[in-house]
Structure formats: structure tokens, C-alpha cells
Amino acid sequence: MFEGPLQDVIDEFSRLPGVGPKSAQRIAFHLLQAEATDIERLAGALTRLQQGVHFCRICHNISSEDVCRICADSSRDATLICVVEESKDIQVIERTGEYKGRYHVLGGSLDPLNGVGPKELNVTALVQRIGGRVDDVPDADGTLPDAPEIVEVIIATDPNTEGEATASYLGRLLKDFPGLTVSRLASGIPMGGDLEFVDELTLSRAFEGRTPVR
């Protein structure tokens, strides 16, 4: 244990996900030896992170504007919504170049043991979007168009216990919307993986999502 501000910095970095005590100590000592301008630049970036980041009023993605660039893009298919847990998941899907619809960020997944229920997630906003009760991007003249009719919701929550519970809950919640297709992003055995190392949940999903060999 160190004393004073150095230990305080180590403790704070240790609270970050994926940063253990040794990594936190290395970062703290690096900052201790850094130039004052580097420290000021880091402190300024952290301040702007807290004060300058907003969330899209439509999909809740991280945005610098009231509406994110994806929701504002008229070339995207407004009838498709891909539901993800966090904004970082959008970046992963976008890199594939396969999906051309819009998104909805839940802000996490159901985790009753840690007090995360539907009210703690952006579930109500999703239902409102599907029901056509949400403002869309204004037209050039400033008027708001009618909310687009949603024809499919693709649930892309993580393939773990919390993600599966969230997907199941959303499936039950949305099943009675007329004309709406609710699908779950397929998951299974990864390319290059060995069957003996695949967990039971992944293997079960692989059997459920099996496709014919052409």
C-alpha cells in the first residue's frame, strides 16, 4: 500500500473493468512521471466525457447531438430495429457492413440479483417506438414525420444468462404487436473452435439455430 494521492489514483483505476491492481499501479506510476500537460489533457478529456456526451433521444445511442447519426441517416431502413445492450455493441455490428437498419440501446441487461429490472432499462422507449409513439427526425421544414412502422425487431443481446433472460423477456413483451416479427440474433459454435471447449449454452443455441447443408 502506498500513501496519499498515489494510492487514491491506484484505487480509482482498480475500480475500472478489466483493470487489476497491478495494471492500476503501472498506470498510476506512469502518470506520476508524465508531463503536467499530459495530465491536464487527460483530466480535460475525462471532464468532457462526463459533460459532453449525450444520448440519442430516439435510440439511446451515445451521440454528440440530440439525434445520433444512424437515426438521422435517411438511407437506413427505419422499419428494422436491432436491440443491443450497450452502445459499444453497435460498433461491432456496424463493422460487419451487413445490417442497414436502426438500433435501440437498452443500457444493460436484466439482472435481478443486482437490482436491474425492466424499469432500469430503456424498455418502455422501445415499446413506444414500435407503437409509433416517438418523435422521429424532423424534416427540412422542421415538421415531424409520422413514426415509421416497425416490421421487425432483432434482439442482439449477449449470449449469456442475463442476455438470454433479456431476449426471452422482450420476446414475450413484443409477441402481441400485430405484424411485428421478433427475431434473435443467431449464435453457435465459433469458426475455428473445438467442440470440446464449447459451453453448454452455446452448444444448445447452435442446435436450435442449425441450418440445412446446401
From TrEMBL:
InterPro entries: DNA_Rcmb_RecR, Rcmb_RecR, Rcmb_RecR_Znf, TOPRIM_dom, TOPRIM_RecR. One of its GO terms (biological process) is DNA repair. The keyword Disulfide bond does not apply. SUPFAM superfamilies: Recombination protein RecR. Residues 79-190 form the Toprim domain. Coiled coil: none annotated. Transmembrane segments: none annotated. The keyword Metal-binding applies. Keywords: DNA damage, DNA recombination, DNA repair, Metal-binding, Zinc, Zinc-finger. CDD domains: TOPRIM_recR. GO terms for molecular function: DNA binding; zinc ion binding. Gene3D superfamilies: 3.30.60.80, 3.40.1360.10, 6.10.250.240, RecR Domain 1. NCBIfam families: recR. HAMAP family: RecR. May play a role in DNA repair. It seems to be involved in an RecBC-independent recombinational process of DNA repair. It may act with RecF and RecO. This is Recombination protein RecR.
